[in-house]
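In response to the reviewer comment on reproducibility (Comment 2.3), we provide here a single inverse folding case reported in full, input and output, so that an independent group could reproduce the run without further information from us. The structure tokens appear first.
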């Protein structure tokens, strides 16, 4: 800061105040300038200073300026101000007077604001003196700091506290300005505001808040009347009392119906699918259901309340998820088992082929043969014409009630007589089928 005169050469009647800092208010600058002009410069310069020129800094040629200021002005002013009990607007307390470097430093109080200033007087070699008055302000403002606590959550200034409360209740919150500081004095006043309304003037307060976004401001004032403010945000949301929706399933195929957590068992013909209908209409919510998601074996298949989706042979897991108007969800499942329908197993059909030489018969027929006296007929038996809807796994040949073989094809020679041939076949499911034939062998007559 620099004092420069606003006058014509000669007697200085006033001084204006120019500053390179923003710490002093305009009204304080005016008061300081007026006092300097009226109480100090006017009385001093009218009597003892031969003014020869004015520049941007006060430059006054005077052989005795320094001695006058050092020996008369400064000491007498301290005495005068002390006797007045420091009641004047401008208070100067001498910290040191260094006659060697010819510089005086002190503290100036303007109203309720304090700054440290440097007054310097530099003599020239010729005896003339350049007088420059430099005021370097060092006002110290308090620093507002806040701590806001609710339960186990704590924030500081310029932060946001998120809280949740039950419907119709408020959040219990404590506020503290204990971290606020003032480096050159003490904090004497606190002002708490919530959403622009004053809620407390103590260093520590309690003030509960309901659901909303709240702006918290703290203003602290020190013993010199300097202020500083800081803020924070508290967002209180109301916890919903609504429950999630309850998903419920109805699955229908033909006349069969199941519900959630049940199993629907169906059969289909080979290569066919079952027609199946699904419904979520029984689902409930204390709000409203706005979304549906159907899944079969983990794959999405529909997003409507009612759905048709046919299924083939296999095990199928049906899953439904419903969403309500608050975004809450509920899920449930059911199972559909589909098997392929198999026709009833029929017993095998036994069929016989009996051959001897060039002669052949089949089941239920008679093979008539002649042999010489004491001879047998060579005979072959086959069950290869037998059939089954599965597979034939066993054969049993009997001649006149006596087992004679267990293969599909067999040779068993026969002598003279009546022979009952019997075949039994068995399929892969244990079912059997039997059939018979007859072989009659006579002895060949000798010509008479």
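Designed residues, in position order:
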């Amino acid at each position: 800061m620099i004092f420069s005169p606003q006058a014509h050469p000669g007697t200085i009647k006033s001084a204006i105040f120019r500053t390179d800092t923003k710490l002093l208010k305009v009204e304080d600058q005016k008061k300081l300038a007026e006092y300097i002009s009226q109480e100090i410069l006017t009385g001093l310069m009218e009597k003892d200073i031969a003014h020869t020129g004015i520049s941007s800094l006060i430059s006054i040629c005077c052989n005795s300026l320094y001695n006058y200021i050092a020996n008369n002005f400064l000491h007498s002013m301290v005495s005068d101000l002390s006797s007045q009990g420091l009641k004047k607007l401008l208070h100067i307390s001498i910290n040191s007077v260094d006659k060697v470097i010819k510089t005086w430093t002190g503290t100036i109080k303007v109203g309720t604001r304090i700054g440290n200033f440097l007054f310097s007087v530099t003599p020239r070699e010729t005896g003339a003196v350049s007088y420059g008055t430099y005021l370097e302000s060092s006002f110290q403002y308090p620093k507002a700091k806040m701590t806001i606590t609710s339960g186990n959550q704590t924030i500081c200034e310029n932060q946001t506290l998120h809280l949740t409360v039950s419907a119709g209740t408020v959040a219990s919150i404590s506020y503290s300005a204990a971290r606020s500081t003032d480096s050159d004095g003490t904090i004497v006043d606190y002002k708490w505001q919530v959403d622009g309304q004053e809620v407390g003037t103590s260093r520590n307060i309690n003030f509960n808040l309901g659901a909303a976004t709240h702006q918290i401001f703290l203003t602290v004032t020190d013993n010199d009347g300097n202020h500083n403010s800081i803020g924070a945000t508290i967002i209180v949301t109301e916890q919903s009392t609504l429950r999630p929706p309850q998903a419920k399933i109805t699955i229908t195929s033909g006349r069969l119906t199941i519900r959630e957590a049940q199993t629907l068992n169906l059969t289909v013909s080979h290569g066919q699918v079952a027609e199946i209908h699904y419904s979520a209409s029984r689902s409930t919510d204390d709000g409203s259901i706005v979304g549906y998601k159907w899944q079969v074996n983990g794959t999405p298949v529909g997003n409507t309340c009612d759905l048709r989706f046919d299924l083939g042979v296999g095990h199928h897991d049906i899953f439904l998820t419903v969403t309500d108007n608050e975004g809450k969800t509920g899920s449930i499942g059911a199972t559909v088992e589909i098997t392929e329908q198999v026709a009833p197993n029929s017993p095998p059909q036994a069929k016989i082929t009996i051959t001897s030489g060039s002669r052949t018969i089949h089941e239920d027929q008679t093979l008539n043969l002649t042999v010489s006296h004491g001879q047998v007929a060579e005979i072959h038996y086959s069950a290869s014409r037998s059939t089954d809807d599965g597979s034939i796994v066993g054969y049993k040949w009997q001649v006149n009630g006596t087992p004679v073989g267990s293969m599909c094809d067999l040779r068993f020679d026969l002598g003279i007589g009546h022979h009952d041939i019997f075949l039994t076949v068995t399929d892969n499911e244990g079912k059997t089928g039997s059939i018979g034939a007859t072989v009659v062998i006579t002895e060949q007559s000798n010509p008479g």
